[in-house]
Write a structure and sequence with these properties.
The structure is a single chain. With 492 residues, the chain is mainly alpha-helical. It has one domain. Helices cover 81% and strands 0% of the residues. The protein is built from 18 helices and no strands. α12 packs parallel to α15. It is found in: Membrane. Keywords: Membrane, Phosphate transport, Transmembrane, Transmembrane helix, Transport.
Length: 492
């Protein structure tokens, strides 16, 4: 009888422990989705407190603290939405794991922002609105605050629904909307807006054309050669050298300017020398790597893996240099106007402002990045290492040139445009090969044109959704910004 009693007690205890375990698992399941927002809120609060301490007790300290908090919020959203364009192709091609991609991107993004992220900020903060048309520094501060809040909210919404929109579009639209609300249509520098708008159209087309061109080169000179390995040994070092030359030139012009000013001609020579050096290093590496490989396309995918990772890293550096302006441009303008009461002179970028932008982008990438990395990497079109290398190289070159010129172009447009360029080139190439092969088949074995057309290599639903999101971003951000500006000024 005592044995039965003891057994029943153990059964009751096991049942209670099982219930406790289920409760703990349920709590962990519920708490996990709250972890990332909690960390984000902590970072935003820390940014605001740090700004309050660094800015001191001067007039406008509370405004600067609030602006720093919203700048951190915007930077987190950039990391969640925009950075997917850099690492998405590498992850989609299985050249990097999700964790590896996030770690590499976080380091490269921060380095790009801190080393070479100053030039574009002046275009974001001042080039869109003519400061002379704004009546007082307070009005200018509230306009920049409205732009910061509206763009952050819009990008947050887009990330939540899974749309890779342009954070650059969001900020530019926000600045424009607040400027119109503050001083009318005349406040907007329409010539600058026209140049920026033109770059929005040109950059994705250019990115797509360059990516398609590289893919055509790889197919013609490597993939369709009788001896694929020998062709790869000849051409892959050249492609990697082109990438290295472009990056070195960009770094010489922008990244080293705080130490020494380098003229364009010298920077081009540095890029050429770097390209030749990388070519000399890559030639023996490719030869060793390709020893014993079978003469097939699968071997080429292996050879392109490491260059793809390197090109994606370069792209993340360029993105950090270009897109940190989206987070800290309006914040830098607010800090300058609050500190000096002058909003018409050149804006200097405090180091702590750049740090908020750089670390915010990294936090956003770690906490919220995987969703859109998967979208860009695998859901638009199928990528392998060769196609993804073309996307990353094309996007890196285009972003570097745009940042070099001081234009706040959208890295989203460039990278996604490159993905579409690769996909549509594959469709065109597939259609061309289908026509040739179909002509050689007996009539009864020919594939119907409707059946062939049905096998699209680019998902049209994603294409239309993304283009629609691109179109609506600027007016939506502008409308939100104008509304927020009216609300802010009504209570001040």
């Amino acid at each position: 009888m005592s044995n039965l009693t003891s057994k029943s007690r153990w059964q009751a205890l096991d049942s209670d422990l099982h219930r406790i375990s289920r409760v703990e698992n349920a709590n962990a399941h519920v708490a996990r989705p709250l972890l990332a927002p909690g960390i984000s809120l902590a970072f935003i609060a820390l940014a605001g407190l740090s700004a309050a301490v660094l800015f001191g007790k001067a007039d406008g300290g509370l405004i600067v603290a609030a602006a720093a908090a919203f700048g951190a919020y915007m930077a987190i959203n950039i990391g969640a939405n925009d950075v997917a364009n850099n690492m998405g192709p590498a992850v989609g091609a299985n050249a990097l794991t999700m964790g590896g991609a996030i770690l590499i991107a976080a380091v490269a993004e921060s380095a790009g922002a801190l080393l070479a992220g100053g030039d574009v900020v002046s275009t974001i903060s001042k080039g869109i609105i003519d400061p002379a048309s704004v009546q007082t520094s307070n009005v200018f501060i509230w306009a920049m605050m409205a732009a910061l809040i509206s763009s952050a909210l819009w990008v947050n919404l887009a990330t939540w629904v899974g749309a890779p929109v342009s954070t650059t579009h969001s900020v530019v639209g926000g600045v424009m909307g607040a400027g119109i609300a503050a001083a009318g249509l005349s406040a907007v520098n329409w010539s600058t807006m026209s140049a920026i708008a033109a770059s929005w159209v040109i950059s994705p087309v250019l990115g797509g054309v360059i990516a398609a061109g590289f893919l055509a080169l790889i197919k013609t000179k490597i993939q369709y050669q009788d001896d694929k390995i020998a062709a790869a040994r000849r051409w892959l070092p050249i492609l990697v050298a082109v990438m290295a030359a472009a990056f070195a030139t960009y770094l010489a012009v922008k990244g080293l300017k705080r130490i020494v000013k380098i003229e364009l001609e010298i920077a081009l020579l540095i890029g050429l020398a770097s390209g030749l050096l990388v070519w000399a290093i890559t030639v023996p590496w490719v030869r060793r790597k390709s020893e014993g490989m079978e003469n097939r396309t699968k071997s080429l995918k292996t050879l392109f893996g490491l260059p793809l990772v390197i090109s994606a890293t370069f792209l993340s550096f360029a993105h950090g240099a270009n897109d940190v302006a989206n987070a800290v441009g309006p914040l830098a303008a607010i800090v300058h106007a609050a500190e000096f009461g002058d909003f018409a002179s050149k804006v200097s970028i405090p180091n702590w402002v750049m740090v908020i932008g750089a670390f915010g982008i990294s936090f956003g990438l770690f906490l919220f990045g995987p969703k859109l990395i998967r979208m860009v990497g695998s859901q638009i079109t199928k990528l392998n290492p060769m196609r993804a290398f073309c996307v990353a190289l094309s996007a890196a070159i285009t972003v570097i040139v745009a940042s070099w010129l001081g234009l706040p172009v959208s890295s989203t447009h460039i990278a996604v445009g490159a993905v579409f360029g690769v996909g549509f080139y594959r469709e065109w190439h597939s259609d061309r090969r289908w026509k040739l092969s179909n002509q050689q088949r007996p009539t009864e074995q020919r594939l119907a044109r409707e059946e062939h057309r049905r096998r699209k290599l680019v998902r049209r639903s994603h294409f239309m959704t993304i283009v629609a999101a691109w179109v609506i971003t600027v007016p939506a951000a502008a409308a939100m910004s104008a509304t927020i500006f009216v609300i802010l000024t009504a209570f001040n």
